[in-house]
Design goal:
seven-stranded mixed beta sheet, three-stranded antiparallel beta sheet, alpha+beta, Ribosomal Protein L22, Chain A, globular
Length: 233
């Protein structure tokens, strides 16, 4: 089972709720949270770990501990000692997490910004990709750029090998056991690369008035990206 959970606005979480969530972290992560400089980075750290644990409990019915070390990706450890592959990403006010019971996974989220995309594409992207970007409208070019960027970021996290600039310099290629899925709204792109096939479930998260983290399937009106296969575009 592969599942993604998006928390689209972590800045709306109040300080008391963050204190409650911090107290529930594993001892090592509580210490790491206290050592992080900057409120925004600390908030991202706390929310991502809390969201992973809640996702496992909500979708798998498992009580897990999120373990992480400096410079290493997080891991989900069940009470039975089983490890579940997981991945996290954050961009401005958005946090995306993913887990995969069938193998490795990597995820990426990006808020669209005011980057000089034409310069980045010209410098780092493959020739045919640069030519394609140059022929698009600004809006279409921006959407294409973030799709190509995010799926490669996710691939690096999933595969554990490679270099982003090298991946940007060639059309996307996946190892045979991996699947890529990308989705967008007008201002957000998410991507997942994972072992297996099909489409992950995508859910949204929020904090309720009592400080609990609530995970629910997206409502039809929610501005949540619908995933598609980037290799089929």
């Amino acid at each position: 089972m592969t599942t993604l959970a998006l928390f689209p606005d972590i800045h709306g979480i109040d300080k008391e709720t963050l204190k409650t969530w911090t107290a529930r972290l594993a001892a090592g992560d509580r210490y790491r949270a206290g050592e992080i400089r900057g409120d925004e980075r600390r908030r991202e750290f706390i929310v991502s770990r809390t969201l992973l644990a809640s996702l496992a409990r909500n979708n798998l019915g498992l009580s897990v501990q999120v373990l992480s070390s400096v410079g290493e990706p997080p891991r989900l450890l069940t009470r039975d000692g089983e490890h579940i592959a997981c991945s996290i990403s954050h961009s401005k006010d958005a946090v995306l997490v993913g887990m995969n019971t069938g193998g490795s996974i990597g995820v990426d989220v990006e808020r669209h910004g005011t980057r000089a995309l034409d310069k980045l594409v010209k410098r780092y992207f493959w020739t045919a990709g640069h030519d394609y970007f140059a022929g698009q409208s600004p809006a279409a070019g921006q959407s294409w750029f973030y799709r190509e960027w995010c799926v490669r970021e996710a691939l690096l996290k999933c595969h554990g090998q490679g270099n982003l600039l090298r991946l940007l310099g060639a059309p996307l290629q996946l190892p045979s056991q991996f699947t890529a899925r990308v989705g967008q709204t007008t201002d957000l792109t998410i991507a997942a690369v994972f072992e297996g096939s099909g489409y992950p479930d995508v859910v949204v998260a929020r904090a309720d008035a009592c400080g609990d983290l609530i995970i629910t399937p997206p409502e039809p009106s929610a501005a949540l990206p619908l995933l598609y296969n980037p290799l089929a575009q």
